[in-house]
Amino acid sequence: MSEYKASFKKISDLNEQERCEIVKIYLAHYDGSNEALILSDLKEKSEVLLVYCDEVLVGFTTLQVYEYPWNGNEIRIIYSGVLARIEF
Known about the structure:
The chain contains two helices and four strands, in the order E-H-H-E-E-E. 8% of the residues are buried.
């Protein structure tokens, strides 16, 4: 049986292999994009949720976390960007 794991990582902590795998997954599922655009978008995000199946990256979603003033308080907003996965 396959073992799935997920982990959050800061975008700045992604290594080159992880960035390449993210680009590969994204391009496999979305038309009208390219590596430069994907990597540029990644830089604008705070974190990424990486999903692994048997130690292989099979999916991800990006997150942007920021504070926003509302009703006299600071609230935390979490924006989830792209969600992509590989189908077997």
